[in-house]
Automatic annotation (TrEMBL):
Keywords per UniProt: Amino-acid biosynthesis, Cytoplasm, Dioxygenase, Iron, Metal-binding, Methionine biosynthesis, Nickel, Nucleus, Oxidoreductase
Signal peptide annotation: none
Domain of life, per lineage: Eukaryota
Keyword Iron: yes
Membrane topology summary: Peripheral membrane protein
Protein known as: acireductone dioxygenase (Fe(2+)-requiring)
Cellular location(s): Cell membrane; Nucleus
Organism: Erpornis zantholeuca
Entry EC no(s): 1.13.11.54
GO BP terms, alphabetized: L-methionine salvage from methylthioadenosine
This protein's record includes keyword Nucleus: yes
A cellular component annotation (GO) from this entry: nucleus
């Protein structure tokens, strides 16, 4: 994706249309830009899941999403400018900055945003059970 021209990028526009991403905002994670920076960074790094997909598009900077594989081992995904990721509802994950300590990201949602994170263990939620079933079906 063309992060320098995200406002007019036809690829991003098509993704938003196709996936019905009707809501978006932009967050900058940097100690001088994010209120309660230290607290937020700790929260982002706690292992958690969401009941909806988490969609992030990196506009500037870089960082890491860590996700659990089917064997419950961590996989680190490096994200940089121009990258987009969709973390499915029910997947345990966390986010951290890299040595640059800066990322500007677009957050996308289907409908109104839901910000609730459920720290592990959160295995009783239907979204988690559905995700586990998906993993089993894929195996």
């Amino acid at each position: 994706l063309d992060a320098d021209n995200y406002e007019t990028d036809p690829c991003l526009k098509e993704i938003r249309r196709a996936e019905n991403y009707s809501w978006m905002d932009i967050v900058t994670i940097h100690k001088e830009k994010l209120p309660n920076y230290e607290e937020k960074i700790k929260t982002f790094y706690e292992e958690h899941l969401h009941l909806d997909d988490e969609i992030r598009y990196i506009l500037e900077g870089s960082g890491y999403f860590d996700v659990r594989d089917k064997d419950d081992k961590w996989i680190r995904i490096a994200m940089e400018k121009g990258d987009m990721i969709t973390l499915p509802a029910g997947i345990y994950h966390r986010f951290t900055l890299d040595e640059n300590n800066y990322v500007k990201a677009m957050r996308l949602f289907v409908g109104e945003p839901v910000w609730t994170a459920y720290n592990r263990p959160a295995d009783d939620f239907p979204a988690r059970k559905q995700y586990i079933k998906f993993l089993a079906d894929e195996a």
